[in-house]
């Protein structure tokens, strides 16, 4: 964010993150923002000064240095890109659906739909706001991507609600359960499935 060459406080950086990069990457805590700013200043990538605005307590403002701009430019252009890692708490609950009731799973999905719908609306609003500043052209198209991403997530969750009844019907066909009250897969079945899948799809790796 400092690479946009504006002098900002830690508070402003946190707020900016909340309506920009949180939609597709991460939103740091205030403590993380200030910790990283101290590290950046120590390495000479940012400078800081205290601004007093008629108040007793001033605020510290940070600005990127030429070395900092060069460093983030090198990172953006040359550093290896980590593949996206999906860590989806809702899907983990559905994956363990045999331990739950179908209606509870649907309730979890409806709560998720409410959340992603809110994120979709917020991303759309922030994208419209970013559209007013030409220097944010790339930020704006990423926010539009985020809007479409959350819309797709909503559609997938709605489809999954219908799929739950199908999955529950399949489980109901299993006659033998165990003392815990849910069907057990055949011991070692996952190993056999893995072998068959790899042999049928050698190009998956």
From TrEMBL:
Domain Transcription regulator PadR N-terminal: 6-72
UniProt feature, compositional bias: Acidic residues: 195-205
Family annotation (Pfam families): PadR
Region entry Disordered, spans: 177-205
Name of this chain's protein: PadR family transcriptional regulator
């Amino acid at each position: 964010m400092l690479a946009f060459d504006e002098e900002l406080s830690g508070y402003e950086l946190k707020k900016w993150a909340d309506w920009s990069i949180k939609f597709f990457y991460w939103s740091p805590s205030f403590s993380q923002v200030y910790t990283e700013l101290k590290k950046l200043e120590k390495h000479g990538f940012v400078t800081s000064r205290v601004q007093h605005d008629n108040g007793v307590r001033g605020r510290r403002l940070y600005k990127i240095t030429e070395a900092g701009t060069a460093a983030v430019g090198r990172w953006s252009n040359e550093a290896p890109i980590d593949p996206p890692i999906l860590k989806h708490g809702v899907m983990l609950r559905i994956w363990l659906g045999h331990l739950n009731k179908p209606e509870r799973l649907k309730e979890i999905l409806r709560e998720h739909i409410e959340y992603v719908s809110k994120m979709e609306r917020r991303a759309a609003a922030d994208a419209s706001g970013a559209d007013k500043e030409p220097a944010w052209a790339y930020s704006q198209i990423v926010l539009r991507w985020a809007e479409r991403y959350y819309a797709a997530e909503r559609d997938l969750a709605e489809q999954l609600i219908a799929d739950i009844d199908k999955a529950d019907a399949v489980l109901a066909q299993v006659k033998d359960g165990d003392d815990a009250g849910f069907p057990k897969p055949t011991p070692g079945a996952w190993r056999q499935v893995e072998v068959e899948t790899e042999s049928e799809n050698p190009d998956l790796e």
